[in-house]
Here is the input.
Amino acid sequence: MDLFAIVPIFIGIIGVIVISAIVFAVIRAIVKWQHNNTQPVLSVASRVVTKRTRVSGHSSPDRVRTTSTYYYCTFEDERGQRHEFRISGKEYGQLVEGDSGTLTYQGTRYRGFQRQLR
Here is the structure.
């Protein structure tokens, strides 16, 4: 077999792998979305345990650099169970570790945190 016969097969296999990965990611997101929609909306007494950020960056060929910052907060409920959610930057800035209040969520979907006034 010569190289000119192998290359199209190899490119086809890579194409199938890429398309399969995209289809899998879309199906997984839809399943997670549907699962969250079937879960009850829960409001539980909780406290802010920790906060963290994740920054990701990308450079394009024309040297344009873009970054994205994702904000996360971990809450601990009255039973000691911890829940980590992605939150907005505004909420991230307003929450302080140790804050107590009511956490509202639906499955893995964060719905809000109402701080208890001291």
Remarks:
- The chain has a mean pLDDT of 92.
